[in-house]
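[agent] plan:
  1. take the single chain provided in the ticket
  2. run structure prediction with default settings
  3. attach structure tokens to the ticket
  4. add a short note for the reviewer (M.T.)
[agent] executing step 1
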Amino acid sequence: MFLCYTTRMEHKHILINAFPMQDIFKERGIGRYTREVVRSVIRLYKENHDSIQNVDCTIILAKNKLNSEELGLDVQSVANLADVKVKSKSSTLHFFVLDREIPTDKHLTKDIYNHFYAQAVIRNHIKELNKTFKVYYFMPHHQMPMQTNTYRNIVMVHDIIPILFNRFSSFIGLSIIKKRQYMFYIDQLNRMDLIITNTEDTAKSLTNVLKFPPKTKSIFLGIPEHFSKVTRSIKDEFKFDSKYFIYYGGYDDNKNIEKIFELFSGFIVSTSEAQNINLLLVGGEKVKGRLLELAKRYRIESNVKLTKYLSDFELISAIKGSLGLFRLSLFEGFGLPELESMALGVPVISSNIPAVKEVTKEYAFLFDPKNPNKEELFRVMKACINGRIDAKLLKEASNYANGKTWKNNTVELINAICQV
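[agent] step 2 finished; step 3 output follows
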């Protein structure tokens, strides 16, 4: 139990800006994080959980379409949420829905929406709440404008990879503009009351970057509790009959995609059992041209398979049907694909970078992403094909990962916010 009752005497109000589950980030890790936190908060109020006693909460949404599955509520449309209240013994969960949709195509239009229209509407809403409550404003992504009229501002920083990687766009002119924009938000972090990170490694990186680093709190990302209950495989869903390693988690420069292709090609060439093994790239259709060009360069066109972005069920099915996760990122703020794959009992091959080591503990096969030991890497991949990965290791990894649930982590988040 994470409660500190001495800090809960006063009735508080948490505002959660849930835009990332609707805007340009909705199909990325930031969107998934926001969606899972919102789902978990709703569940806590439904269950009358101790963590939300004397704590009202409002979830802020744009008018964009959402299905009931995304929220865990039976509602016909987002607009109807304004009339929905989820009550516990001593607190209430509300929804505040803006009249306009947030842009989902470009960063610039999203930022204009956030800084001008949404900022003003939310500020007025906070002004009304301030008459009754101390308002704690939580932003699930650090590239969002803070509110100056709240009691406390709390933000989640998933990573600062653009700074560590020193790359903001593949186009020089655009990169300069995006860097200035990104650094505006980094400077804003100095004025936060609490920064949530998903690993201690990210917290350390922030301390080195910020001029006046505020208090930080590391809270892991989580695993949906329904993960291990899915029994169907991707073969049922997509009629996909071949054995495959799976990659998912985005295609930015830090993901080291070309190195993955190079190594997978070397594995196929050097291993007789691997000739018909595929590499399944989830969400790869969005960058199809680039990936197919790499496949052609490394002569593995027939071994590379691309999918659209998958629903939660489809992703679980895809992971469970795989031989193992294969990722070699140069930088990560966390390692959610690693945690999810371990939860499903799937072998994990990944990078020995600090964040991933912090997440996977001793339960994954980790390699230098720039210069991996190919002999050892190919040995592990071959063991995945032949089913010779230690079953005890996979079981212990699954037990460990399944203990990191979104519900438990959201309870920790709420208590961290209320104790600021």
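[agent] step 4 note for reviewer: Confidence is low (pLDDT under 50) at residues 1-8.
[agent] ticket updated
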